[in-house]
Design goal:
Layout: H1 2-16, H2 21-39, H3 45-67, H4 80-105, H5 110-152, H6 154-186, H7 194-200
Length: about 200
């Protein structure tokens, strides 16, 4: 199972980095055709997916009944031992995800929660401006364009990202302080001042 995931990840990375120009070009063309059908021709995403799957099954039906013998079916697709090997990793992943979700929803990590708020708000705004299909199309095109661009101009992009991340952290800190001050003014009894804490000690 782990090997299959690693192979799939490697293939995806090879596609977006254009390691094989023919495969990457074919994947890009297929994606563009799909977005054209959905975004321009007005087909729904579900309808397009069902049509593609129907065509795929029809081709396989014709191929394995008219042109080539069917492959033999394995007795077991996955063994019990293989599942047991992954139990520890799956449990670790679930616990990590649960801890992150708890920290996010309960505000245990204000920086993380602020980042999620900003990210979700940005996605909502982009969907409003571009529509969901337009946003997905932009992300799809970026997936095939950004990695190669970054590979060619890594130093300049890294420097720009450092400046942008510094500015973003400054803005986040300013916004967090402003929100905290407004909450303190609106609900003075719920915010403990440093002087009150010292008196308790």
């Amino acid at each position: 199972m782990t090997d299959a995931i690693a192979v799939a990840r490697t293939r995806a990375v090879d596609l977006v980095y254009w390691k094989d120009a023919k495969s990457s070009g074919l994947a890009l063309c297929v994606g563009l055709v799909a977005f054209y059908v959905v975004g321009v021709m007005g087909w729904s995403s579900l309808g397009t997916a069902c049509l593609v799957l129907a065509g795929h099954l029809a081709l396989r039906l014709a191929y394995y009944n008219l042109m080539a013998p069917r492959p033999s079916m394995p007795a077991d697709w996955i063994s019990e031992a293989e599942v047991q090997e992954q139990v520890a990793a799956i449990t670790k992943t679930i616990n990590a995800a649960a801890k992150a979700a708890f920290a996010l929803t309960c505000g245990a990590n204000p920086a993380l929660t602020t980042q999620w708020i900003g990210g979700l708000a940005a996605v909502a705004l982009l969907c409003r401006l571009l529509t969901t299909t337009g946003l997905l199309f932009s992300l799809f095109v970026a997936a095939f364009a950004v990695p190669r661009t970054y590979e060619a101009k890594q130093a300049e992009i890294d420097a720009a990202l450092v400046v942008a991340s510094t500015k973003a952290r400054e803005l986040r800190d300013v916004a967090f302080v402003a929100v905290k001050e407004k909450v303190a003014k609106a609900f003075p009894s719920t915010v403990k001042s440093p002087e009150a804490e010292k008196k308790k000690l």
